[in-house]
Amino acid sequence: MSVLSCTDLRVVIGSKTILSGVSLSIEVGRITVIVGPNGAGKSTLLACLAGLRAPTSGSVALEEAALSQLNPRARARRIAFLPQTSEIAWSVEARTLVELGRIPFIGARGQSAEDRAAVDRAMAAAHVEAFEHRIVDTLSGGERARVLIARALAGEPEWLLADEPLTGLDPAHQLDAAALFRRLADQGVGVILTLHDLSLALRLADRIVVLADGGILADEPPATALTPEVLKRAYGVEATLTQGPGGPLIDVIRRV
Ligand code: ADP
Ligand code: MG
């Protein structure tokens, strides 16, 4: 079983320590959700795990191999990264954008039938077939976010790392995207997400990593991760956990 791990990760930018002492071992076939306050280091950690940012010290490994030893093309075939911003600078058709997700596979002869079929599957999974020929900068934010999910899926990666992929989606499309992540995990993909919505995190995650001040505050199954004590220490708020009809709900009461 494939494992993505980091050991004693430390990231220092200028004089600021962004992450320190972060060790994780994450298995495929599960959804791991990273939560934590603004500036906790979630995006930095995700970029390190994707091999897109080199830590100041410590290591990231995919199975037994250090990520830094995989060439970028080999790494990109296995780990798809979906950045936080849904800004797309180019006026291209949605399908063209999704096709970019096949770049790590495309040989000298250009797109194969298999590449086209993978793009079709990714667009169907993210429910964006209807926008195939729309220019991406005419899509709504939520539609664009789904096209970017399709681009990440086009490479049929073993790992999908997505930074706040549900932000900006309406509730129905949040549910769709959540169901899609669950389906991917059930198919054996390692899904690692950062999320801001704690109730959604509880409903979606198999494992929750709480990051605060660049370190891991909790790393637990959802049932035990977000205790009032952890929420207080991480976010500085008093909050309670209740059961709603759709699953667990975090009710934030006040700052403490
Ligand atoms: P999060 O995603 O949890 O909000 P980030 O990983 O984006 O946190 O950032 C963590 C901290 O690192 C923040 O204080 C941010 O300002 C700082 N930071 C991130 N990237 C840089 C950078 N390139 N230069 C300086 N500070 C940075
Ligand atoms: Mg972030």
Automatic annotation (TrEMBL):
Record-level Gene Ontology MF annotations: ATP binding
Residue stretches making up the ABC transporter domain: 4-238
SUPFAM superfamilies: P-loop containing nucleoside triphosphate hydrolases
Pfam families (alphabetical): ABC_tran
Cited InterPro entries: AAA+_ATPase (IPR003593), ABC_transporter-like_ATP-bd (IPR003439), ABC_transporter-like_CS (IPR017871), P-loop_NTPase (IPR027417)
Keywords: ATP-binding, Nucleotide-binding, Translocase, Transport
Alphabetical list of PANTHER family matching this protein: HEMIN IMPORT ATP-BINDING PROTEIN HMUV (PTHR42794:SF1)
Known role: Part of the ABC transporter complex HmuTUV involved in hemin import. Responsible for energy coupling to the transport system.
Name used for this protein in its record: ABC transporter ATP-binding protein
Source species: Brevundimonas staleyi
